[in-house]
Design goal:
By secondary structure, this protein is an all-alpha fold. 80% of the residues lie in helices and 0% in strands.
């Protein structure tokens, strides 16, 4: 049975994590799709802090002798899932950045060609060039 001090620290950490997530959401520093996982983790931490026997019961159910090992295993799985999701997002953003850079390069090339063509063509009376 955990000590009262450990329970209090765990509850304070879980509540602080929840407050932090909601504050980051409020300030638009964290997107909703990422906040969901952190809210769930904070709530799970809060529940396990208030009812530590749940972790022991679940560890016995799964066949793990030490509840802390189950906690570490669960943490590794969650961190792996978050890392995998963020790696996927980074890959998509890299592809998007490359595509946008290619489009900007193509537009610059087209603009240069249009400017060269305009410089070589004689000015027609009555036509004005925007920006002049």
């Amino acid at each position: 049975m955990p000590t009262t001090r450990l329970t209090i620290v765990s509850v304070v950490v879980a509540v602080a994590a929840l407050v932090l997530v909601f504050e980051l959401l409020r300030r638009r520093r964290l997107r909703e799709k990422y906040a969901v996982i952190w809210v769930l983790i904070s709530i799970a931490t809060l529940v396990l802090a208030v009812f530590p026997t749940l972790l022991k019961s679940f560890a016995e159910l799964v066949g793990i002798q030490t509840p802390s090992n189950l906690l570490f295993f669960g943490s590794v799985v969650v961190l792996f899932a978050v890392s995998l999701q963020l790696s996927r997002e980074v890959g998509l953003l890299e592809d998007q950045s490359r595509r946008l850079a290619e489009e900007v390069g193509a537009l610059h090339l087209r603009l240069d060609e249009l400017e060269k063509r305009q410089d070589t063509e004689p000015d027609e009376p009555g036509l004005t060039v925007p920006g002049e």
